[in-house]
Amino acid sequence: MEMHVALYRLAAAATLGLALLHLAMIFVGARAYRYFDAGEKMAQMAEKGSPVPAIITLFVAAGLAAFGIYALTGSGDLGPLPFESLALVIVPLIFLLRGAAVIIEAVRYFSKGYSLKSIGFSLVALLVGLVYAAGFIALSRPDIGG
Known about the structure:
Layout: H1 3-28, H2 30-35, H3 40-47, H4 52-75, H5 84-112, H6 116-140
């Protein structure tokens, strides 16, 4: 199996798993919004029965699912999609930018006791972004692993 296929399949599995996690958050409600640091306002709205947290979370889940589907086009498991090349560049950047927050969070953790859990969430984003980026590099440069 070519390297980019394995990397994009791993990226797809991780991203689709994150999409499912977000869908589960909708059903769990306020406890999940608090645990995953979505903000107290989101948790309070969920407790009051507002549809806003669920709608926002559904959009996030849909975006993550779309990212996973694009990863499957990168692996060759799905046919081409519109803007595929652009998506395979932008998606890793999104995850890497989100993951870069780990630096700020680590500084805050050691100086003010910031949540270790938040550092973990950023590390997950960073790792997923690195897998996407490695898949893109392997696909673009068959001489080094594609």
